[in-house]
Specification:
By secondary structure, the protein is α/β, with parallel strands linked by helices. The chain is built from 22 helices and 13 strands. It has three domains: about 80 residues, Arginyl tRNA synthetase N-terminal domain (Gyrase A, domain 2), CATH 3.30.1360.70; about 230 residues, Rossmann fold (3-Layer(aba) Sandwich); about 180 residues, Isoleucyl-tRNA Synthetase, Domain 1 (Orthogonal Bundle), CATH 1.10.730.10. Helices cover about 55% and strands about 10% of the residues. Helix 15 crosses helix 16 and helix 18 crosses helix 21.
């Protein structure tokens, strides 16, 4: 890959070259530079305010000295002091245009301009992790979509990513399910509609258990038999896993989400004894009321239980085996789990025990997120009846079809159906990814499925429209009598903003925040619409037209790349 630099990075280099003799080569010039409002300049620097005290000068006086040193650079068309000692800087128009040409020439290098340190690193991550024997609820949507976007973004900056799906196919709920199937189940009925029937049986178990205290013990006994290899329980468990996997896969297909490996908890069963044994040998695990536990470093925190008194293992034991397996198989630099904020303490335990057992040198990271909150109260979860993910997708498609029928009536029925599905999935993803994952995710149909405001349809419509200009340019000619007017402010603003994609990508990767990209794309689309609505492109004079078409192309490429990192497909027509 090339060595493409953003304008901000180039400006920092100019600073170092012009000011290095005076302030030293090791000073962080980049930290003093930031984008500014176009009416003041392209970039602003507070370097004079940072260095004034050390230099024994007033900030404004020092700023004037610095301005004199910078003015001779041919890339800069204006360098001026402002306020108490800021410096405002503009690049020459030719330089901005050259930057856009370079972006198009070396796009892959440009994207990683601020993320080059990530190249060649390896990440193994887990996201989605549905539970076998239960349908996927809306809460699985967040982990699935956020995890997929993080995976895509890391891959775009040259990180080798292994995406795992640590599905819940063991645990005490299987004792309950096996007991329920044996007691009240009809295998023929389950075969016809597996997940719905299993859910009914699971709910029935909990209803019956409220009146029968011995049921929980019976379920525990069934689960212990499963762990001990009882043939009948094993066969029934395998049937449940098969039923569930067959129902889950179409949801992933609809969302366009893929995994490299899918290792359920059962995959690690063979490794659990080794984990327990290692903990005992290292003196990390101690006995407590018959159970095996790890005492946390902070004395006030509850211990982590790794084996129950009946010898059964726990989710935590299997997570430790997962970490050991990931290390042995891939030796990654980073291990990541994308799980809601409610599990923060649990992962604090997992990571501390893993460290005590010396399972890996990789950084272990829990990427958390809030809950989904519905503006439409009828969508909220009801007791004994979770809101199912496939129902949510179906509702999104129904609403999307109505929107498409209203707005895109010129398309054929088939084109409308395809577009509606793309918009429905795009709206579900973008609504999630455009919000700060650490807060609760607000879910509002009206805001998600509209062609106005911060929504997937708005972004997709903008990029499709920009793409259509490039198509129309092939069959239209310029208005030759128009005199060239040169770049206008709407063009400059768009050029400068396209140059900020690498920064948004860097933020998204280093903070695991896909909303850094989503927010950037929304701002970019707004700037493009200002440019499109107020500037002649196809009818402009020859020089203006070719420059604006090049900018249009850079915008489309930038938007498509950003949307792809979020997992959104761009439709052909709208």
């Amino acid at each position: 890959m090339g060595n493409m630099k953003t304008l901000e990075q180039q400006l920092a280099k100019i600073f170092a070259g012009k000011l290095g003799n005076r302030f030293g080569d090791d000073f962080d010039y980049a930290a003093t530079i930031s984008p500014t409002d176009l009416q003041f300049g392209h970039f602003a620097s507070n370097i004079a305010m940072q260095l004034a005290k050390k230099e024994g000068k007033k900030p404004l006086d020092l700023a004037e000295d610095i301005v004199e040193m910078l003015r001779s650079d041919e890339a800069l068309t204006s360098v001026e002091t402002a306020g108490p000692g800021f410096i405002n800087i503009r690049f020459a128009d030719e330089y901005l245009q050259q930057q856009i040409a370079n972006v198009l020439k070396d796009f892959d290098s440009y994207i990683i301009a601020e993320s080059a340190d990530w190249q060649g690193k390896k990440l193994v991550m887990d996201y989605s992790h549905p539970n076998i024997g239960k349908p996927m609820g809306v809460h699985h949507l967040l982990s699935t979509i956020i995890g997929d976007a993080i995976k895509r973004t890391y891959r775009r900056v040259g990180v080798e990513v292994v995406a795992d799906n640590f599905i819940g196919d063991l645990g005490t709920q299987f004792g309950k399910l096996i007991h329920a199937v044996k007691s009240w189940g009809d295998l023929e009925k389950i075969d016809k509609d597996p997940i719905a029937e299993l859910l009914k049986l699971y709910v029935q178990f909990h209803i019956e258990a409220e009146n029968d205290v011995e049921l929980d013990d019976a379920a525990r006994a069934e689960y212990k038999k499963l762990e001990d290899g009882d043939p009948q329980n094993r066969a029934l468990w395998q049937k449940i896993v098969g039923w569930s996997r067959a129902e889950i896969q179409p949801i992933y297909d609809e969302l366009g989400v893929e995994f490299d490996v899918i290792h359920g908890e059962s995959f690690y069963e063979k490794d659990l004894a080794g984990i327990i044994e290692k903990g005992k040998q290292l003196g990390v695990f101690t006995s407590s009321q018959g159970a095996l536990v790890y005492q946390m470093k902070e004395p006030d925190l509850p211990p982590a239980i790794v084996q129950k008194k009946d010898g059964a293992t726990l989710y935590l034991t299997r997570d430790l085996a997962r970490i050991a397996y990931w290390e042995k198989t891939w030796q990654p630099d980073l291990m990541m789990v994308v799980v809601d904020n409610a599990q923060s303490f649990y992962f604090k335990q997992v990571f501390e025990v893993a460290e005590a057992l010396q399972l890996t040198d990789a950084t272990n990271l829990h990427v958390g997120f809030g809950r989904m909150r519905f503006a439409d109260k009828s969508m909220s979860t009801r007791k004994g009846n979770i809101l199912l993910l496939h129902e949510l997708i179906a509702e999104a498609k129904k609403r999307s079809r109505k929107l498409v029928a209203e707005k895109s009536g010129s398309l054929t029925d088939n084109e409308q159906a395809v577009l509606a599905d793309v918009l429905a999935v795009g709206a579900l993803k973008y609504n999630t990814l455009s919000q700060n994952r650490q807060s609760d995710i607000q879910f509002d149909w009206d805001k998600m499925l509209t062609f106005e405001g911060n929504s997937a349809p708005y972004l997709l419509y903008t990029v499709v429209r920009a793409g259509s200009i490039a198509e129309r340019a092939k069959s239209t000619t310029t208005a030759a009598e128009n005199a060239s007017e040169g770049p206008v402010d709407a063009e400059r603003a768009l050029m400068l903003l396209i140059d900020r994609l690498p920064k948004a990508v860097s933020e998204a990767v280093s903070e695991n925040r896909p909303n850094a990209i989503a927010n950037y794309l929304y701002t970019l689309a707004q700037h493009y619409n200002n440019f499109y609505n107020g500037t002649d492109i196809l009818k402009a004079a020859a020089d203006d037209r070719s420059r604006r078409l090049r900018l249009n192309e850079a915008f489309v490429r930038t938007m498509q790349t950003g949307l792809d990192m979020l997992g959104l497909s761009v439709p052909d027509k709208m």
